[in-house]
Amino acid sequence: DSLISLSGVTKRYQSGGQPAVDRIHLEVAPGEAVAVMGPSGSGKSTLLNLIAGLDRPTSGTVTVAGQRIDTLSETAVARFRRQRIGMIFQFFNLLDDLTVADNVLLPAQLTGIRRARALARLDELLAALRIERHRDAYPARLSGGERQRVAIARALVNRPALLLADEPTGALDTATGEQIGELLLDLNRSGQTMILVTHNPGLAARYASRTVQLIDGRVASDTLTGAQL
Ligand code: ADP
Ligand code: ADP
User: Fold this and answer.
1) What is the layout of strands, in order, in the sheet containing 67-68?
2) Which string of b and e fits 85-110 if b means at least 16 CB within 10 Å?
3) What is the atom index within ligand 1 of the atom nearest the CA of 48?
């Protein structure tokens, strides 16, 4: 069974305009790490936003973890996203006035997970990501690579079925980007399904099991890569 299923998905921002995503069919199985590549404006972010339920398709259906999300209410889709989807971004999107621990705990608080359980999960994630010593620090004190580790911990705190990453190494130097890539690969090896939007062919080749290339909102190619070969 697919974890993600897009069927005939089209997204037009302006009626009558060029679709940003054009009749896409895409099935992602549990455990896959899919890199989405393509030129600027080819629809990568739109595709990610449709899968996250941040955007609604103009036509077609989007199913994630067995749930049709294109027909859910705003409230229901927000709840679904908090419980089932973790997201990381190029510029980390951490809250500067919260400590590392409080940033990571936030999605757990929003879903009402018991405090003791959330704290145990926090410890486990900070250890796995090797940022325990920054637990009580504020994000501004951390390096880019450390901030992205905090963002990854936050994305994983609710054990999401799906991790979505939008240019996760785009703001990092090469060596730090490779460390984040290795972390994502380890996560995928332990079973985490992920979609990774990237401009970086090296990242796709080394850390994804499959690469989907978009051109003008359509899937131009879909091939096995890196980790899979
Ligand atoms: P990519 O992530 O590959 O750069 P995007 O999904 O951001 O591509 O954009 C695909 C197309 O949709 C582009 O032509 C872009 O200008 C357009 N687009 C993206 N977001 C919006 C929006 N909020 N309103 C109008 N047009 C948009
Ligand atoms: P909003 O509803 O305004 O988008 P939320 O209250 O859902 O924001 O989330 C608060 C903060 O937690 C935001 O900074 C958001 O980026 C982050 N966040 C929420 N859900 C997730 C998630 N599943 N993965 C990673 N960060 C999340």
Assistant:
1) 21-28, 4-11, 59-64, 67-68
2) bbbbbbebebeeeebbbbbbbbbbee
3) 6
Model pLDDT for residues 109-123, shown as the tens digit of each residue? 999 999 999 999 999
The residues with which 119 forms a beta bridge, in sequence order, are: none
Give pLDDT tens digits for 20-70: 999 999 999 999 999 999 999 999 999 999 999 999 999 999 999 999 999
Residue type, 149: R
**Structure-token pair, residue 19:** 């679709």
The bound ligand whose nearest atom lies closest to the alpha carbon of 93 is 2
Nearest to 136 by CA among 101, 97, 93: 101
What's the pTM value of the predicted model, to 2 decimals? 0.88
Q: Are 100 and 147 in contact (CB under 8 A)?
A: no
Please give the structure tokens belonging to residue 200.
Answer: 């970086």
* For residue 227, pLDDT beyond 80: no
Q: Stretch 166-195: mean pLDDT, rounded?
A: 94
46 lines ligand 1 (CB under 6 A): yes
Is the CB of residue 15 below 6 angstroms from any atom belonging to ligand 1?
no
Distances (CA, A) of 58 to 17, 71, 192, 212: 12, 11, 29, 22
